[in-house]
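Supplementary notes for students who missed Thursday's class. We covered one full example, reproduced here. Read the sequence, then the structure, then the short commentary at the end.
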Amino acid sequence: MAQLRSSAAKSVALWYGLLILATVIMYLARDRQESQAHVVLVYLLIVLGGSVSGGRPLGFTLAAASTILVSYYFQAPFDEFSLSKPVDAIVLSAFMATAATTTYLLVRAQEEAAEARARAEEIQRLSAEASHAAALREAARFKDILLASVSHDLRTPLTSIKALAQDAADSGDANSVIIVAQTERLSKMVAHLLDMSRVNAGAYPMSLEVNTVEDLAGAVVTEMMGANAADRVHVTIDYSAPALVGMFDFVETIRILTNLIDNALLYSPDSETVELSASRVGDWLQLDVADRGPGVPKDDVERIFEPFYRHAATSGTAPGTGLGLAIARSLAKAQGGTIEYAPRKGGGSVFTLRLPAVEDPGFQLDE
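Structure (token representation):
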């Protein structure tokens, strides 16, 4: 017990020491900075670090202290408490809500992760006489349940935080613009986690219908029109051949291809194009997304489809969570298809989506 108290005291001293040190440094540089947006991010990192180290009590007190320091030292008029501008109250409320909610969710995720580890250990003990494959299936099922639970619980508070910050951003506050952007990024990550857990659990609805690749490619191009660098995407389909027809979920296949194209654009040089081509290979429709990016090391070819995996050579050069390829392969598999990687001749990557083709003489394109 004494050891626990000593450890808690050291954690409190460490993180409040960092809070004071960061405040002093940013205060000394305050007059030389055109924007104080970095202040919010520094304090938020300290709050998150304290939450991981000392749990909810330390995280919440750090959040409250950080809010006071932002208000006193880094919002004009400086070195006094004043809410003369309505937007100041909104900014402080958004920061406090972000810090407190994130602290709560982070600690909760840690607790649930500990429960998951305990449950995994229990499964290992109970399955000592069972096959290794059965134990892995149970562990994977529990992981999917945990992901679904955490992802679902995160969506509501993130929506509230974004709404608060958006109000302040609409009034021209730079700090709130950052909060909105980061909240959108977190919301996208949560949506990916929820989709991943649903697909793995077999609870993701699929609508398998007869569709043509021509319609699919047109829809993908339309979907990409609002994206950056969409003009670098070139589509190649042999229209002189019979229509390429397959059995697949039209909406989810659009999502697969846009994920692959986004990934290709992300890692390709700005001067290079991304090629989307389609063909019929045996009983399969084959759609290739080819780029001129750095490619994938041989040892990492299968790992790139694992959730959260990002190769060390590229993980720091481009944003992302490492879920796009994992979700794309899961959605393809749920339709009876596959996604594979191959190096591109001359440099780059080729991601190949294969979907079941169909023979239907009575199927005709609309005139």
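Commentary. The chain is about 60% helix and 10% strand. The longest strand covers residues 274-281. If anything here is unclear, bring it to office hours.
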